[in-house]
Design a protein that fits this description.
InterPro entries: HK97-gp10_tail (IPR010064). This protein is mainly α and 130 residues long. The protein has 6 helices and 4 strands. The chain has one domain.
Length: 130
C-alpha cells in the first residue's frame, strides 16, 4: 500500500531554506515518532483479539528514526525473550496446514485503519514544529 503526496519535495526544500536542515530533521523525526506511536497502538489493538499469552504484543518495538534509501524511517519490529519475530509472518499470512489463522491480515488491517490518524499526526507535529 502506498500513498502519493504531491508538492512534498518543494515544501520540504522551502522549509530547509527557511529553518535549516537540522531543524527540519528534528521536526520530521518528531512527526514520525508521533505517527508511529499511533500505528503501534492500532497494531496492538488488532493483535488483542486473537493473542494467547500476549507475547507478540509485549515484544512490539519501534526503532528510532534513521535514514533508509534517502528518507527518514521508523521500523516496527518484534524483540524480546520469546522470539516472536520468528513467527509473526505465520500469523499474518497463514501456513499450509493452517491457511487462515485467527490473526491473518491483522498487520494489513492496522495499516489501513491507522492511515488517516497517521497523516493527521504528521500534520499536527509539523504544525507544532513550525
Amino acid at each position: 500500500m502506498s500513498v502519493k503526496v504531491t508538492g512534498m519535495d518543494k515544501m520540504l526544500s522551502n522549509l530547509e531554506k527557511e529553518l535549516g536542515q537540522k531543524a527540519v530533521q528534528r521536526i520530521s523525526d518528531a512527526a514520525l515518532t508521533d505517527a508511529a506511536e499511533i500505528f503501534l497502538d492500532e497494531l496492538k489493538r488488532q493483535f488483542e483479539s486473537w493473542s494467547d499469552k500476549g507475547y507478540s504484543i509485549e515484544e512490539m518495538t519501534l526503532s528510532k528514526p534513521f535514514w533508509e534509501g534517502g528518507t527518514r524511517t521508523i521500523k516496527v519490529y518484534w524483540k524480546g525473550p520469546h522470539d516472536r519475530y520468528r513467527i509473526i509472518h505465520l500469523n499474518e499470512f497463514g501456513t499450509v496446514k493452517n491457511p487462515n489463522p485467527d490473526g491473518k491480515g491483522s498487520i494489513a488491517r492496522a495499516i489501513r485503519n491507522s492511515e488517516k490518524p497517521y497523516h493527521n499526526a504528521i500534520r499536527r507535529a509539523v504544525e507544532r514544529g513550525i
